[in-house]
């Protein structure tokens, strides 16, 4: 009789935990960001990120310019791997806010500007550098009017240069508007448990904790000329008269030697109906980052339509050939083989080992690793686990997923190797090559770009300590897991070919056009599924916009996989029909050639959409990162095409009656 009691106790305990989970879900927000409630008058200090520019793409430290420093010294915030790799450097700042207290405050007055200070300020101003300030994990947002259109930006400029003028003016006064939402929360507590573990949950005397949530952070920058002799008599956070923005040119602070710059700011708290979970909506609906929904849907429908037509035609053609071939008797088959040409004539060569088979297996292994990383990352991002509030989380997640998916890369690469070779010898060499091929290429390119960043003294340069961390992750996690996956691949049963391979290779008939032309042309269809989304991804990376439509990106990714598989299979069938049995590499590059179009599109984007990008250093950085992206896409899409073509060829020839 003990079993029913135990079962009932477990059921009640489960029910209690379920209620607690539902209570917790009421306050659920995107992971990586936690709601903070501030009491009236509570002090809040803003933080500052690296200075960024869409003209140079070289981030610099905020305190590389002569700005006011915090009284307790500069303290760096803890940063994750992704933030460090992206060049973020989040420091504390002297800007103090008191919850729901409107005030106008003095910050500091700098010493006389030196020649180097003036040179730096002018250069950062003319390169359109932006100051990125953060309050309660929200970036500062400003509004501008361009041709009658209201546009939102994150950050504010270091300075500005009036038209038809050689003088530059520094932004030294900031008018902040902090949007707050009054919060009232009710607590719950468990007041007792019954004999069988039943939790009793009730409000704790309906005692409510009140406070304010920060749901918006806006800034209006302006330049104000102050009397330094008068302002130096003030102390930090002393009250000063409020000023209106913008000021006349004559009342603005010019950047030149021996000038002393005074920094002040206004704070205004405004109550808002925006709730905590919706506070990022304003950033994700920026004018420049608005997704063209109808264009994407139109592209998806066209590609589905084309892919469906190709797939139907292909099925009808193959089915007709198989039916005709299987209905003939042996004598008729022999006569047919003598009279007809086509894929049936390469039965003794179709599974012949390709040239550079080891390199092919290595690229397939790395392709599996990259594809798995992309799919899992985009799925988690689409579910909201990698929100913009969690800076660097997307890149950190991608790196960790890539490391742990080494086991899948080793398994698939070695499995393909044992299938082609018929033996598992040299599997360690294949596994090592898989673990080092793509990461090695990325490492070489990043090192070259890093020397450029070091020479420019940019915060985007990877610190030497981070290099050792990345190497440790590579050789202590990725390499062992790839070797483990390779070992598991040797223990798996090799895929048996349905036909025997002849000792003497069959001569491939001459063709009127080179096969590589068809392979290159095949990449246009997968590129058609990708290029619209690629524009928004590049805009997110290089123009500082937020990319958030991961649901659409997941649809595009699934569509890309389908189209790559179909294109590769169709092209493989076409090559077999003209008695070309060397299909392995052609199947890989039929879908992998989309990477060439991606790289060419990146160059097109640089020339026509990133016209503000200036200097050979910035262009080199852009092309280096674009090359890494193109190589990753080639390995991923090529692997999809090759594996699909392999299973198609295996199915095709296992369906034919062979003596």
TrEMBL record:
It is a multi-pass membrane protein. Keywords: Endosome, Golgi apparatus, Membrane, Signal, Transmembrane, Transmembrane helix. It is found in: Endosome membrane; Golgi apparatus membrane. The chain crosses the membrane at residues 293-315, 359-386, 392-418, 430-454, 466-486, 516-542, 548-571, 583-603, 623-649. GO terms for biological process: protein localization to membrane. One of its GO terms (cellular component) is Golgi membrane. It comes from the Eukaryota. Belongs to the nonaspanin (TM9SF) (TC 9.A.2) family. This is Transmembrane 9 superfamily member. The lineage of its organism: Eukaryota, Viridiplantae, Streptophyta, Embryophyta, Tracheophyta.
